[in-house]
Amino acid sequence: xxxxxxxxxxxxxxxxxxxxxxxxxxxxxxxxxxxxxxxxxxxxxxxxxxxxxxxxxxxxxxxxxxxxxxxxxxxxxxxxxxxxxxxxxxxxxxxxxxxxxxxxxxxxxxxxxxxxxxxxxxxxxxxxxxxxxxxxxxxxxxxxxxxxxxxxxxxxxxxxxxxxxxxxxxxxxxxxxxxxxxxxxxxxxxxxxxxxxxxxxxxxxxxxxxxxxxxxxxxxxxxx
Length: 224
Description:
The protein has helices at residues 12-21, 26-53, 66-72, 83-86, 117-126, 136-156, 194-200, 204-215, and strands at residues 88-94, 97-102, 128-133, 182-187. It has a two-stranded antiparallel sheet. It has 8 helices and 4 strands, in the order ααααββαβαβαα. Helix 2 (26-53) crosses helix 8 and helix 3 packs across helix 6. The two termini are 47 Å apart. The longest helix is centred in the N-terminal third of the chain and has 28 residues, at 26-53. It is of the alpha+beta class. It has a domain at 128-150 and 177-187.
């Protein structure tokens, strides 16, 4: 049976001295842990900034419909009470491994009984088709909201706001929106996590190694 010969290449004595000076590698592991966390925090920061600016990862979000603008009194997609954007956080999984995104335990305002934020985030990220049957309560609420919103929209048309599409009389209401009708609602995706991740993954290794080099005084890698 043939043996395997191993030959060490490079300044291994220098490597031993560096490791001894950094507590046998513990300081290096700590430096890597901090560098990975810093990269995760930069990702979360960019997600929040992207949502506030309406273009996560440089991809412009689909504008809100006029009816939504009237109800929210705002034309900022994905921002209502800021529950979604505030739920994007960094969580430590284990050494040198961090999660950045929406935690499964995040809830909307109202405590434990609130809607799951991660479910809402998934709808925005991937889109969804919802089939519902209109109830009398839904019918009353919709047209009450429609009267309120279309009134405010008509007052703002002079400033460039377009009226809701549809019939003039209904102000854009679907004629078949009546109790017992079945509606198919298609929610278009508005990804706000993946575009930022795709952009930040480029150069992530270089940034982590740079941070490690700075933390160790240049003993590991370079800070370029």
